DNA sequence: TGTCAATTGTCAGCGACTGTCACTAGCCTC
DNA sequence: GAGGCTAGTGACAGTCGCTGACAATTGACA
């Protein structure tokens, strides 16, 4: 790797860290691109040569996580029923994600940024759009697994929408609570996924949930 | 109603129409606030006195529709199972929505704008965030119906997330297709909702869907 | 070492907003 | 019906995100 390349990598990293650190401490809207550039001592123009926009820095880590989830779903054995494949893929990929994130940014910083994402309207909106794109991708993968045409059969998109909905609910509750550990997220998510059946099937009043 | 009040109402309406018309023909990003203000012959500053932002004009009609859906869910007889209540509320409120929209903006214009919303990344993101807020509200209503605590019992949020997910899928498919009628949306949505059970239950390969 | 190409800074400009302030037009009272 | 009062408006200046253009710099490679 060149000196030039290394230098680029360093500024990129520095910009990303500075941005996330500022978002986490001061807030997203309260941080200007000039602030980020100044923290790394480059011009504002240079920031925009590395990142398409302020938003892109906030979603750098989530983007990585999404890619890992997609891989994990692809790697699931074809014997599993779709919902099961999705569930195992996500729950099991969290460990991988944890490690991969640490290589880029302290996991603690990432979690503080994640809270900012969930509580900043502009970022939350962007997050949900990304999630929608991810769901579309997953629906395609599920359809392929089952040998179906996504556009002809509604079921792949339905399962993924259901699954994605539950994941988003648990992500939100998790980020709003105090237990910001991976273990806490895993517990919450599996508990919610276990309730999918009961939520659809039964008479709630007759059978209260734990 | 005052002359003053009437005048205000007229500028508000004119701004809204001008904005939607421009969005539908030229596109959202291609329309500047100056364009909208110029079309009504007021200053840009005045536009911002009527609307919090360009985005707000695009979501004026959807906001109305959401309010009607909430009302419709509240009005459902308590005997219905949650998913059934949601389904009937939404499907039946479309007629009400149709009328209410016509009072403000030609329904045809609204539909063209809706297409723009679904195909403009910034607007789609905002739309999804609004949908998330609506889901949170509906979860509260459902929980109340069933006499549950939303934060203690996962099921209200799960059903609503599932339902919302299916609705969003069908909205997207509908807006991307050619049949932009209410009837088309109703058919598509009911067909998809009918597939929720099969999507979760069965072995897809053994029982292909229609 | 000198040339070439990649990286960067500077500057100018657009579009969405916001605050400020003077001005105008409708309202209300005498 | 003239006057003052105030809500509504326009004009102006400024912030912030972002982009294009051009010149200056810095590493790469012969």
UniProtKB/TrEMBL annotation, chains A, B:
It comes from the Bacteria. Keywords: Coiled coil, DNA-binding, Transcription, Transcription regulation. InterPro entries: Homeodomain-like_sf, HTH-type_TetR-like_transc_reg, HTH_TetR, MftR_C. Gene3D superfamilies: Homeodomain-like, Tetracycline Repressor, domain 2. The keyword Transcription applies. SUPFAM superfamilies: Homeodomain-like (SSF46689). Residues 32-51 bind DNA. The keyword DNA-binding applies. Residues 124-151 form a coiled coil. Residues 9-69 form the HTH tetR-type domain. This is TetR family transcriptional regulator. It comes from Streptomyces levis.
């Amino acid at each position: 790797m060149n000196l030039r390349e290394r230098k680029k990598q360093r500024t990129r990293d520095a910009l990303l860290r500075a941005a996330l650190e500022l978002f986490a401490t001061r807030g997203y809207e309260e941080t200007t691109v000039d602030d980020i550039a100044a923290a790394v001592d480059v011009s504002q123009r240079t920031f925009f040569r590395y990142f398409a926009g302020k938003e892109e820095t906030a979603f750098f880590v989530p983007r990585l996580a999404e890619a890992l989830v997609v891989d994990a779903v692809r790697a699931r054995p074809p014997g599993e029923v779709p919902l099961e494949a999705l569930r195992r893929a996500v729950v099991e990929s969290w460990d991988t994600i944890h490690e991969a994130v640490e290589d880029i940014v302290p996991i603690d910083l990432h979690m503080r940024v994640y809270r900012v994402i969930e509580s900043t309207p502009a970022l939350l909106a962007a997050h949900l759009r990304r999630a929608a794109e991810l769901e579309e991708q997953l629906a395609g993968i599920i359809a392929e697994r089952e040998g179906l045409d996504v556009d002809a059969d509604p079921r792949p998109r339905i399962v993924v929408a259901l699954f994605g909905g539950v994941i988003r609910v648990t992500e939100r509750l998790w980020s709003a609570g105090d237990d910001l550990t991976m273990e806490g997220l895993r517990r919450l998510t599996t508990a919610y996924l276990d309730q999918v059946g009961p939520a659809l099937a039964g008479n709630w009043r007759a059978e209260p949930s734990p």
